[in-house]
Amino acid sequence: FAAVDDRDAEASILEPHDGSAIQGVVDVSSPVKGPDGDDFKLGVEDEEEEDELIPTEKKADGEFFKDDYGEGLKRFPGIFGGIVDDYKRRLPWYWTDIWDDAMNRKTPAAALMMFLATFCSTVALGSAIDRATNGSIGIAEYLLMNGVAGMAHSLFGCQPLLILRPTGPITLMITQIYSLSNSLQVDFYTLLAWTGWGIGIWMTLIAAFELSRHIAMLTTFAHDVFACFVSSIYVVDGIKGIVSRFEGTDALQEASPVFALMISLWLIFVAFVLSFLRNHSHLLPKQVRFLLADYALGIATITATALSFSYGGRVSVDRLPVADTDSLVGWVEPSPTADRAWPVNMFTTEKAWLAAIMGFVVSIPITIFFYFDQNFSSLLCQVDEMGLRKGKYYHTSLWWMGIFNFACPMFGFPFVTGSLPHSPQMVKALRNDEVTRGENGPAVSENRIAPFIMYSAILFSYLLFAGIIELIPVAAADAVLIFVGLEGIIDTRLFERLPVLITPDNEIDPANSSVACAARKFTLLQLLVLGAGWGLNFTPAALAFPLVIACLVPIRFYLLPWMFTQRELRILDSEDKDVKEGKPTADKKMKDEKSF
Question: Over the stretch 64-87, which tens digit does the pLDDT of each residue have?
């Protein structure tokens, strides 16, 4: 089920039945062999190479935080220097962004593929927040925010391939803000707007002082925990929607939730089967497999919607509430989900002063989470393996998120941030297999037109095709959330290592027994941090759960070096794929070639 493009040659195959319980991290069934056939030592050649791969100790000059982590992650004198530098580096590429690199077959194909992936999950989240806030905010706000903010960022941002939208964690946070507003007896929209002001101010300050550069300090340990946490939010939201239909159902309505469950299971099954085709070349021709896998979620949603009509009117099916329209196609005047005006009254509602204070307090942990969410999304879609050639950009993306989150909640819109896994998927969708650029593999048609078309389609899907969206059953939206979440979890190394927790010791080769033991501790520690985040989410201090994510930094730099040896960390927490697979690093390969 690994949703990884086999063109990247990154997918690992789990075979727990033969003892390879943590294959892809370290093969515990047999000693690792080097290029000369001898046992390959998984340690490093010297302390200098080890220090570069595992930044667990302070540098010789005593610095812990650095001013320069590489391209796009530098500190500049004064304020807003990083934003200025981003635009200086990106503006010379602007013409190629809108013309030279956009006029090819990959642009419409990537736009359509990412529209289906983003649209389906955004509609599903809009349906979930509608239920959670009793209709205070819903699909209309989610689609409008996704479309308008995305179009602006695709034209004026420095990294247009970064996909931004209201995400699963944002849905969770807005749900908690809604609960807080009820507890404080303040207006929900007033509290949301003041929280947006706080988030906008904090994110602007972070961008002004180039604090995004420190995201480079985090390693695979944090990446996997964060990705699993974000993905698990989608799964939980989807399951809540399914379970809620069985609560309070009388005998005359028993068929309705059961039929809805069948619709959800069908969508998940079809989506996984089609995604599964990508890495199984013996089933269909390559182009057919890739086509079905690229549009797996869209095809699954269409078939689930068709299934929902199979019983006619004999079984009631709840469908998505989008707009008050009687026609499938036609212009819809944008209107809020609730019966209210668009502008939010921030100053004269009851206890507005309390909403302002609490909004700024709540914005602190939310901004911490957005710092990780936004920068992780930027980081993972701009890693060297993606093959981008127009530079790496972080500060401007965070600054634009600050602008959107400051202004849009004043009209009752949700927050936005970079989206996982959609941001890396956009880059992969624009890869041109017919053109290669050195070691980075297929060339990427980096342009602004593909994301602009995608966001425009999302916006006009609401303005022109709201009637068609309303045909989708709510059960299908819940299933979309579950599929997106499971796909994200399966794609992590944490998931790949889970079999090691139940692999018997007698199936582990003695040569790698110590590494297998370390892998168990490493995996259990990640699960413990993940559980702590969810545990806090079910307490009155639920909005403080981003603080658990912030703890990933001290855990990585202080706790892990105490619990594991450098050799074990090099295997379990290195970003170097060769190290994880037990292969010599590029530097060692060079030394071997020169010696030969």
Answer: 567 888 888 888 988 999 999 999
